[in-house]
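Budget justification aside, the reviewers requested a transparent look at the raw inputs and outputs of the sequence design task funded under Objective 1. We therefore reproduce one unedited record. The lines immediately below are the structure tokens for a 458-residue chain.
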């Protein structure tokens, strides 16, 4: 089966997909119909000129293009692990039409010229690249960046991801300073004094493995601090990669009070528990209740299971999954964090935290749907329409809209292996596992950016 990539500089596409299930969380529609795309726009079904390619959509689902709020593209400075070109191909392969590039590159994206440079490289990429600018100069946590200039250059949010804004005073000033831009502060909620020296989530598994444990309070104290500051200043706060039920409860209560707060969770914090560090390889919803005693000597201490925040315990992971199901979590964001092998295939305590996610996120979500933990509509809302809305992007399958969509086969399965991934990096504990859901076609901004066997890119 041929696999092809296109890019956003290609000519707009025209095609018909006949008899596919069209599922659009933007208006709740869900039904079998023909999708007509003419010159990059969705057209009403009746007006199809001759000579337009007609594809068989039976058994396939069409949904709005996925939007990732948290992607590490590693360019500039980490091109051995990923580039804007390779990372956006990985995005298109995973059904994403937008990625938000995180600013913790080398040098960091803390100046307008650097933001503009990344955006210009993204123009010929295989997915739309939006930029999250650094909140403080050099991400040093001392002086705020020039937010108005960065916003004018195209930044869609601000974050010192990798670390929290170090002091309440600075976080408060940032929330106030962002007010005129209307853009959110994206917080990596982790108190460094509580997280320092830890390697995995505190609990029975950490105790048994003898690894220093990260207490859930490391996340909660920053979440509570920032919620208080957002409430007081009226600033827009987005909490990324939440990993504890306690933090989610605090967010729910703040939302009820009208605080301008949103949040996301990663696919790995939903699907993998801290037992994965001991070698478990079943998803949280398939794990038996009493995993406390199990240790798989062959897969334990895999550095690719080290992430920040660390993988949650199973109860918290399942609570987060309920948060996606009930909509109190706004988005699933990958925290795609490519690393070369020499940084992850090492002793657990030496491993660089983070795993890739763009090519596996949708399949993990579909596995949760197959397990009955989520509806497909809730999954698609958390991966497409809701994160897109947070950065001001429209999504939807209505006639007249720009074609921005993913076509996937929910019944097909694929094996995660180096040769199946287009990211420059392969640091994921999912290698060797078989996952549901194969993306067949990704159309970004009216252009076919990924085609697996549909015949539009040959
Ligand atoms: Zn982070």
């Amino acid at each position: 089966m041929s696999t092809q990539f296109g890019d956003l500089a290609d000519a707009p596409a025209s095609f018909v997909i006949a008899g596919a299930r069209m599922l659009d969380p933007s208006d709740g529609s869900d039904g079998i119909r023909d999708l007509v795309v003419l010159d990059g726009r969705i057209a009403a079904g009746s007006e199809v000129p001759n000579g337009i390619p007609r594809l068989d959509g039976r058994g396939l689902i069409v949904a709005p293009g996925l939007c990732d709020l948290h992607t590490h593209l590693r360019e500039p400075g980490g091109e051995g692990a990923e580039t804007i070109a390779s990372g956006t191909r990985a995005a298109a392969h995973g059904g994403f039409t937008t990625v938000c590039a995180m600013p913790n590159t080398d040098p960091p994206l803390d100046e307008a010229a650097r933001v503009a440079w990344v955006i210009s490289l993204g123009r010929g990429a295989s997915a739309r690249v939006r930029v999250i600018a650094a909140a403080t100069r050099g991400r040093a946590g001392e002086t705020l960046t020039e937010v108005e200039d960065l916003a004018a250059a195209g930044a869609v949010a601000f974050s010192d991801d990798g670390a929290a804004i170090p002091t309440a005073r600075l976080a408060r000033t940032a929330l106030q300073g962002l007010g005129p831009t209307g853009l959110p502060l994206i917080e990596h909620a982790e108190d460094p004094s509580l997280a320092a020296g830890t390697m995995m989530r505190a609990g029975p598994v950490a105790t048994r493995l003898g690894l220093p444990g990260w207490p859930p309070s490391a996340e909660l104290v920053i979440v509570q601090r920032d919620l208080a500051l957002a409430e007081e200043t009226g600033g827009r706060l987005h909490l990324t990669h939440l990993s504890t039920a306690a933090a989610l409860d605090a967010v729910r209560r703040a939302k009820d009070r009208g605080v301008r707060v949103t949040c996301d969770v990663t696919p790995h914090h939903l699907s993998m528990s801290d037992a994965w560090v001991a070698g478990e390889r079943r998803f949280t919803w398939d794990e038996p209740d009493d995993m406390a005693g199990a240790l798989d000597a062959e897969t334990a201490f895999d550095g690719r299971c080290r992430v920040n925040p660390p993988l949650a315990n199973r109860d918290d992971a399942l609570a987060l999954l309920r948060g996606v199901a009930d909509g109190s979590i706004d988005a699933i964001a990958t925290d795609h964090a490519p690393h070369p092998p020499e940084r992850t295939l090492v002793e657990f305590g030496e491993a660089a935290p983070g795993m890739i996610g763009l090519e596996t996120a949708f399949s993990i979500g579909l596995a949760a749907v197959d397990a009955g933990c989520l509806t497909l509509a809730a999954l698609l809302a958390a991966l497409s329409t809701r994160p897109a809305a947070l950065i001001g992007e429209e999504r939807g399958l209505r006639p007249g809209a720009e074609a921005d969509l993913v076509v996937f086969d929910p019944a097909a399965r694929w094996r995660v292996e180096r040769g199946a991934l287009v990211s420059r990096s392969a640091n994921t504990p999912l290698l060797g596992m078989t996952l549901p859901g194969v993306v067949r076609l990704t159309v970004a901004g009216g252009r076919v950016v990924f085609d697996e066997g549909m015949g539009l890119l040959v």
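Residues 217-233 form the longest helix (17 residues). Residues 8 and 415 are 28 Å apart (CA to CA). Computational costs for records of this kind are itemized in the attached budget.
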